[in-house]
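Both lines are quoted verbatim for reference:

——
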Amino acid sequence: MGIMDKMMDKKMDKMSKEEKEEMMAKMMPKMMEGMNMMEMMPKMMMGMGMDSMKSGDMKQMMHETMPQMIRECFGHMDSEDRKETLTMCRSMLDDVEREFP
């Protein structure tokens, strides 16, 4: 771990939940500019320890985050984009159900 990582860890440890949320709200849009989410998401998930989560913990995390994330994303889409995305989501869920019976 580099010195910047250590400094950031110390700073984050001292921050309140609200301060962390505020910082993320400011930083995420800047960080996302020019980044490929398809390449980045798996790395971010593994970096957050998701590769070692137990089944029940993963289920709980999904129950807590998915509804809010979906509503937030769909709230920013126009009607046509929502329809296309819903179709894609339904298809993807069917694929996942077949892949993990």
